[in-house]
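Lay summary. Proteins are chains of building blocks that fold into shapes, and those shapes determine what they do. In this project we predict the shape from the chain. Here is one chain we studied, written as its sequence of building blocks.
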Amino acid sequence: MTMIAATGLAKSYGAEPNRVPALRGVDVAIPKGTFTAVMGPSGSGKSTLLHCLSGLDTVDAGTVRIGDTEITALPERALTRLRRERIGFVFQAFNLLPTLTAGENIVLPLELTGRRPDPEHFDAVVTLLGLADRLEHRPAQLSGGQAQRVAMARALITGPDVVFADEPTGNLDRRTGRELLDLLRRSVDELGQTVVMVTHDPAAAARTDRVLLLADGRVVDDVAEPSGAEVLRRLDELDGDEYANQSADGTESVSR
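And here is the predicted shape, written in a compact code that computers can read:
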């Protein structure tokens, strides 16, 4: 089953004569229950694609469907409700409310739509993310990794159709970032979650089922069952300067 289907996506920023195209006729199909990475050189359109697929940004042309709903046809109020109920977000910044406990931050999306958490699903998410002993802590009392796990629990608590993650390991150290990637992987394997992640890290991409490579606003490659080395090789072909000092495991290297 296809969870996300995008056809002919076009998006530009700015006004003429300085208008800059970010997406140029992008077609994407994401199967349900899969983990997909979106990668590419700086300015390739990867974050713009994530924002358009998730309804955070409008498109100039094309359509996006999540499940059986064409989100590009929805009025703003209906789109806001869809984002709250059917989409989860994990960003580089944790975006937790400092006055709420971890548990309160997790269930906030449900409260905003007047829903109560399902106890069994809540327990499954909290157990998956190892947060049972942190639910009464406020964000200031959490480490970066714990705060990002709370943000991930908040994204999963609604049982969303899809979770969009934008550089989710960007503010984490290497070990904690790997732990978060493990949890994203497990959410797909154990909860049947669909995850789409923007990343610049070949090691992170190697944890996914598929990598979409963008360049100049177009999908130029589609890598199934990626390895870090294969992703890095293909990225080097797109923009060798940007990735020249990065190794396949995400560390910096002096020579290649």
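What the prediction tells us: Residues 45 and 204 are 19 Å apart (CA to CA).
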